[in-house]
Amino acid sequence: MNINFFExxxxxxxxxxxxxxxxxxxxxxxxxxxAEYKEKQKxxxxxxxxxxxxxxxxxxxxxxxxxxxxxxxxRDFIKEIFSIDEPLTILIDLELPLVKHKExxxxxxxSVCRNKKILKDFFKEASSHNIKIVxxxxxxxxxxxxxxxRLLGISFGVKKYKHTQCIMYYTxxxxxxxxxxxxxxxxxxxxxxxxxxxxxxxAIATGVLGDEPIxxxxxxxxxxxxxxxxxxxxxxxxxxxxxxxEYIEKIKNLx
Length: 255
Known about the structure:
It contains ten helices and eight strands. Strand 2, helix 2 and strand 3 form a beta-alpha-beta unit. The chain has a single domain, classed as Alpha-Beta Barrel (TIM Barrel), CATH 3.20.20. It has an eight-stranded parallel β-sheet with strand order 3-2-1-8-7-6-5-4. The radius of gyration is 17 Å and the shape is globular. By secondary structure, it is of the alpha/beta class.
């Protein structure tokens, strides 16, 4: 099993946790621009040169990428990415503005269709620019949610757009047993339609919400075992900054 890590706040303190990793892994580094990403990439390499990196873009006025993002944010981001002359893996974090910039629901409501087209065109053209896309997506809790997500533009058909889908299976946030069960069923359903499905696991440190429940090492081990049982070969843990010896011990049992 290949185990990677998200890092939403790639400070020196958080990136220092990479010293604990002695297996092949990719770190998704959040940054406000490609230039900033390259700086963080260099910093990580000075700590652990054996790790790979991927770019997790944060939009200046929208934060996450979705059809509710500001059109200028989307266009500026795509223009910058398509100007880069090197192979690149990018995380497109397809989340709705539930916490950051809630005003975007109202401000950009009438731009959703236009922004969906911008994103679809980006997905179609990415490979011709040597860009590989990984999408972070909500789990399909119920039958039909996949269709709703595609309608909202927070999911795109992997067969048509040729990207890698990573479902955010953050069990620490599923306090309700019914929701937890429905989420697991949703993952199994998604796996049937996408044999290359990946999972995001966590959270082992808080993110932009600031109060995310933290997954215990034992619970992380159970989630990793679930992924292995479903023949899911790649998982990405949110986030690197929470890594410690206890988590590493559980992870190494399944690497």
